[in-house]
Amino acid sequence: MSRKETDKITGVETTGHEWDGIKELNNPLPRWWLWTLYATIVWSIGYTIAYPAWPLIKGATSGLLGYSTRGEVAQNIAAVEEANAALTAQLAAVDLATLEADPELNRFATAGGAAVFRTNCSQCHGSGAAGALGYPNLLDDDWLWGGDIEAIAYTVRHGIRNEADPDARWSQMPAFGELLEKEEIAALVAHVQQISGQDHDAALAGQGAELYLDNCSSCHGENGTGDREQGAPNLTDAIWLYGGDAEALEYTIRNARFGIMPPWTPRLSDAEINAVAAYVHQLGGGE
Amino acid sequence: MASDTPPPLYAPREPIFPRRVNGFFRKFKWWIMIVTLGIYYLTPWIRWDRGPALPDQAVLVDLAGRRFYFFWIEIWPHEFYFVAGLLIMAGLGLFLFTSALGRVWCGYACPQTVWTDLFILVERWIEGDRNARIRLWKADWDARKWRLRITKWAVWLLIAVATGGAWVFYFADAPTLARDIFTLNAAPVAYATIAILTATTFIFGGFMREQVCIYMCPWPRIQGAMMDSGTLTVGYRHWRGEPRGKHRKGARAAAELRQATPYSVAEKDLPSDDTGQMGDCIDCMACVNVCPMGIDIRDGQQMECITCALCIDACDDVMAKIGKPRGLIDYLALDDEPPLVPGDLAAVRPMGTEATAGGATATVPVAGRVADVPQAGDQPVVTRRATDWTPKPLWKHILRPRTIVYSVLWSLIGVGLIWALFVRSDIGLTVEPVRNPTFITLSDGSVRNAYAVRLRNMTGEDRQFRLLITSDAPLTISLEGADDTVTVPAQETLQQRVYVVAAPGSVPANSDLTDLRIWVEDSETGARASRETTFNGKGE
Questions:
Q1: Inter-chain contact B440–A13, Cβ cutoff 8 Å?
Q2: Fold match between domain A85-168+265-281 and domain A176-255
Q3: What span, in angstroms and rounded, lies between the C-alpha atoms of A68 and B357?
Q4: Peptide bond before residue B243 is cis, with ω within 30 degrees of 0
Q5: Do B164 and B189 contact (CB within 8 A), yes or no?
């Protein structure tokens, strides 16, 4: 029990506690302050009735107002979707070739496409769309199956080399390891190095030229510039999906390498596919 | 109080009925009230032409558009440092004024004081002055009391609604919003804001009053720490006023004094007239009756005092009536108090003992304090105030190293802000290098970096900007979806991806980092802005 003590100067009783000689006066609170406390108690009772509050064994009381944070998020999403409904409908039906002529719709598509891309595409193509070994870089100006916005949308819609969609883009490079001798493959490697402007063995490359015409040109073209109809890469440029050095080229020719992209038709809506096509198209390589 | 009875935990509010007062400070405060309330109510209605794209309200906080308009100045969110600077200036200004003049903000300019003053004025018009109000307060709730009270509350409520109503006009076009409010078409948030501010104005100005200052406001505590003994505040010249008492003359006063004092009094020391032993304070309670905080300034500086200076006016009035110089209560500092000097030596005896020694009897203060412990023997038991003491002149209280330092800091920030205001560009440019990926190779082998450029047009007209690049290395610039020129609409921010390309095999393509500078140039005016950034090569 603390000792009662009265402060000499003010004549007010102290709280009886002392901290290194400092004492606290025990002045009374104003009455209205007390009423404020009671008001907050009343408020808190009403609050716990109106809002989810009391923990139960499973979950908690739901409150008379039926409020939940999840419900609020759902409401907000619904509100945004409703606000965007007109643009979304427009985007689903738009002729992609004319999309850029409509700046508002284009902005809507690009912004929405960025979100679609991050959720669905970035796992393989990277969050910055720079791709990785075996996954194409979408920023550059080299396209396997075409880089205009409609070609991009088609690729997204149907995918590449998958059984699920009969309209999927399809091509398959044979594994030349079973068809050609080791020396022949080395000559082909030298030829591809030559046409892509790398250091190469000129004698070998000469041998490779003929082999190339016999085995490769039907898909990659006589000059090695590729064929987008078949998704055959351009072999003369500086961009290599699986690497462009001798070792990587040899491996690719021997074993054949190709990737698979799923079709996005059921998962993404028409509007979302158009949006992501618009987004990819404006990343820097669109044609 | 019995020692076992605990003190009350809660104190009811003592009602305060400030009496009407006239004088210099009261007049000054009326003017301040007119000016501050005038500024508050009228500012949103001032128009200012900024062209068709921008609002024409002189002072507008556009929360949705994230702009603050103040006459010819327009503050964007990224220029928040102006607001920060103004807040720092406000803080330093408070230090300055508090160290020089105490709680001058509280007493004159604080909205709580100004609106309370206005509410008390209304109260006096309707219910009468102090005595009438006390009578009414004590009276039963009859028809007359109800009538007066309801009239008063109605007028208060009107003022409160006008106050809450004026606030929202700072956040939207005032004429439009006023029409919407009256036709019930305004946003719910406008009505909610008006309702809340109406309630706080009505309650704080009408009923809480000094309770807000004493219990709710942090400034009294903080300002107490900013004052020192040289600070001018409202104070009582107790060395002049004490001993206080009714203003009487000659023998009668002497008789009273003889009765009142615990010590024997020598006849020669008794007052022969009113200039003698009694102080100037006649204990008329005028200073207490006018006080809106309900305190007695004669008790010295206290936390409740907001230095409204009304007690100075009240006391000066009384001093004039009794023919004394003004300023018994006045703006003064603690160190204006004249120092104590020893008084005459005299034999002092404990209370009730009669004087014997050498003809001299006891002693009573000659306008001063009686010493604490009366002891036998000759000693300077009486002190008096030095008469040759001249307090510092007013300007020396205000011009002190502290206040000068505050003023200098305050001015430096002010000058800095004004300088920043004049040199700021109306082009906002940020260049953010895209680092995911750092660079890409194009099919011809050239190396490309991308930059996210934000271009802000802070004028009211659409502008065309050309983007350029300067670098020691051979680099070329191109824009996504545009040639070299972009149009930025008035008041908008354009996000533009910019590509910088190094030719295959060139130095920047193969080196690690290359410095470059991206420029924008207004195609019409030639105004330019630039940002430095770097180019990532393959680093081979």
A1: no
A2: yes
A3: 92
A4: yes
A5: no
Nearest CB neighbour to B441, from listed A29, A30, A238: A238
Q: Is the bond preceding B437 in cis, omega lying within 30 degrees of 0?
A: yes
Closest of A119, A215, A117 to residue A175, by C-alpha:
A215
Taking CA–CA distances from B5, the nearest residue in chain A reads A4
The tokens describing B97, both together, are 């004024």
Domain A85-168+265-281 = CATH 1.10.760.10: yes
Question: SS in 3 state form for B520-532?
Answer: EEECCCCCEEEEE
Identify which of A27, A31, A141 has the shortest CB distance to residue B12. A31
| Chain B environment of A12 (Cβ under 8 Å) | 7
The residue behind tokens 């009107």 is: B158
Q: What one-character DSSP code corresponds to residue B213?
A: I
Place of tokens 């008492």: B245
Enumerate the domain spans of chain A: 85-168+265-281, 176-255
pLDDT at position B73 is: 87
Q: Which tokens belong to B54?
A: 């921008």
**Beta strands B10-11; A29-30: pairing state:** parallel
Residues of A in contact with B8 (CB under 8 A): 28
- pLDDT tens per residue, range A29-59: 888 888 999 999 999 999 999 999 899 998 8
Question: H or E segment at B536?
Answer: strand B528-536
A176: three-class secondary structure by DSSP: helix
- B168 phi and psi angles, rounded to 5 deg: -70, -20
Where do the domains of chain B lie, and which CATH numbers do they carry?
24-226 (no CATH), 233-396 (no CATH), 427-536 (2.60.40.10)
Cα angle: B77, vertex B78, B84; to 5 degrees: 80
Rounded to an integer, what distance in angstroms lies between the CA atom of residue A194 and that of residue A235? 10
Q: Which residues of B touch A38 (CB under 8 A)?
A: none
Question: What is the third-level CATH fold of A176-255?
Answer: Cytochrome Bc1 Complex; Chain D, domain 2 (1.10.760)
The conformation of residue A261, written as its DSSP 8-state character, comes to B
Tell me the C-alpha distance between A248 and A134, whole Å.
Answer: 12
Distance (Å, whole) CA B304 – CA B311: 14
The answer to whether B421 touches B458, Cβ cutoff 8 Å, is no
Opening angle at CA B309, ends B307 and B315, nearest 5: 135
Residue B404 tokens, joined:
């000068």
CA distance B465 to B478: 14
| Helix locations, B204-285, DSSP H | 210-211, 219-226, 238-241, 250-260
Write the DSSP assignment of B147-208 as a string of letters: HHHHHHHHHHHHHHHHHHHHHHGGGS-HHHHHHHHHTT-S-HHHHHHHHHHHHHHHHIIIII
Contacts of A140 in chain B (CB under 8 A): 440-443, 448
| Residue pLDDT, tens place only, B268-300 | 444 444 444 678 888 999 999 999 999 999 988
Give me the amino acid identity at B114.
V
Structure-token pair, residue B516:
């470059």
- Whether the CB-CB separation of B239 and B197 falls below 8 Å is answered with no
CA-wise closest residue to A261 among A56, A121, A69, A92: A121
The tens digit of pLDDT for each residue in B324-373 reads: 899 999 999 988 888 877 655 554 444 433 333 344 444 444 344 444 44
> Binning pLDDT at 50, 70 and 90, where does residue A3 land?
low
- Chain A contact set for B440 (CB, 8 A): 130, 137, 139-140, 284
Could you identify the residue written with the tokens 């047009």? B457
| Residues from A in contact with B at Cβ < 8 Å | 4, 12-13, 26-34, 100, 126-128, 130, 137, 139-142, 197, 234, 237-239, 282, 284
Measure the CA–CA gap between B433 and B498, rounded to whole angstroms: 9
Report the distance separating Cα A111 and Cα B385, nearest Å. 82
**Which value does ipTM take for this structure?**
0.83
